[in-house]
Write a structure and sequence with these properties.
The structure is a homodimer. The first copy, chain A, is an all-alpha fold. The first copy, chain A, has one domain: Tetracycline Repressor, domain 2 (Orthogonal Bundle). Chain A has eleven helices and no strands. Chain A starts with 6 loop residues before the first helix and ends in a 6-residue tail after the last helix. At the A-B interface, helix 9, helix 10 and helix 11 of A face helix 9, helix 10 and helix 11 of B. Chain A binds a DNA duplex through helix 3.
Chain lengths: 212, 212
DNA sequence: GTACATTTCAAACGTATGTTTAAATTCGCT
DNA sequence: AGCGAATTTAAACATACGTTTGAAATGTAC
């Protein structure tokens, strides 16, 4: 291979691949350093600890994605009247797809990592995310409330969490689902296909009439 | 305490609690036996291995739930015309709530375990479940297809997995969500309240018009 | 009450993990 | 070329895990 990448980068790329495939806790530093073809101790040398490596892997994507999303949310909030819910949701598509700039497969990898972040019970990740990007998320919730003026805020709260569950779970099982879909329906499914399939589903669920 | 329960039962109850709270792999046999106040070796004596303990914990609920669901599905399939989608989904409510017969909080615990089963990558669980209850699941998919004749089967496949994600994620974060809802909206939320909130959301998402 | 099977127990086994150490090596700079 | 800092390396450390062992304790039937 004669890989001239820096050790840091080799670790990051091996780590993100294994983290996405099997989760944070289930991936050992020895697997990572073995795949990256670097010494075991170099993870602690360059990143301090496994915990900090996990944050570095996520941060590489979040640092690109979240400012982009914030900018889009701000733009929509400036509109004179409420936006369509599908418009609000569609705002995620482009910034997510642009993550392939970090790496080919970047979009898919990041979404899987996001899923792992919620299902692996890594308390430090929740804190890390809310601390850095809570403001951006608030703008999104406001946009959804404006799109659905008939729904009480508590209903929106629940439905947004329902939707987060859909996204996180779908992305965490992304590989398995793609395999099943390919086998059962002879479909080739790429990540942008899944994202675009999600939007009408989520929009319909979030905007559904209340049960009374 | 002077607990006269059998060692087996004490292990099962401690295990299900810890598995639901923190997942299968993240829970050690030493945590389980410590909470159950039994000897470490008794897990291997009574259940053989950790893997088999996990299956026993799930089986205690599945053995009650799945025949009940199968019976309901069969009843609906006997109808002359397609059932409403909300009717099909509502069929889950009663059997799930009846799981409190196993244990108070049984419904909530089981749904959390189900979530863990999907997010913890325990390959043997998927096999175990499909092998035992694949037939029942097929009936449910058929019912949904009858309810949504306009949707291609591949679209239904994806949307049912989206829905599974909602359920699994919501139940896995059940405790946290209840606390937030109580604090932000002054709502008291019980498990049957969450389940009933889910149905219109899921029904609208599954039946949404296709994007293309 | 004695013999037998079942269950409990403390201890150890083998393996894997994240992290640390200290020496060896490589790199950047004058 | 040679010095000092940065990096890489092999080895060990401490800890945790699931599992096994063999003896002690308990229960059961005659």
């Amino acid at each position: 291979m004669s890989n001239k990448q820096s050790t840091q980068l080799k670790i990051l790329e091996a780590a993100e691949q294994l983290f996405a495939e099997t989760g944070f806790s289930a991936t050992s530093l020895r697997q990572i350093t073995s795949l990256a073809e670097v010494n075991l101790a170099s993870v602690n040398y360059h990143f301090g600890s496994k915990k900090e490596l996990i944050q570095a892997v996520l941060q590489r994507y979040l640092a690109i994605l979240m400012p982009r999303l914030d900018q889009e949310f701000t733009r929509l909030l400036a509109a004179q009247q409420p936006n369509q819910l599908t418009t609000v949701l569609s705002v995620f598509v482009e910034p997510l797809l642009e993550l392939s700039a970090v790496q080919p497969q970047g979009t898919s990898t990041f979404l899987q990592l996001l899923g792992r972040g919620y299902t692996d019970v890594q308390g430090h990740l929740r804190w890390f995310f809310n601390h850095h990007y809570g403001r951006t998320l608030d703008k999104f919730v406001l946009l959804v409330q404006q799109s659905c003026p008939a729904l009480p805020p508590s209903e929106i709260f629940w439905r947004l969490h329902f939707s987060l569950g859909t996204i996180v779970f779908t992305m965490a099982s992304n590989v398995a689902l793609k395999d099943i879909a390919a086998a059962d329906f002879n479909e080739t499914v790429e990540i942008d296909g899944v994202i675009k399939r999600l939007i009408p589903y989520l929009a319909a669920g979030i905007a559904a009439p209340s049960a009374a």
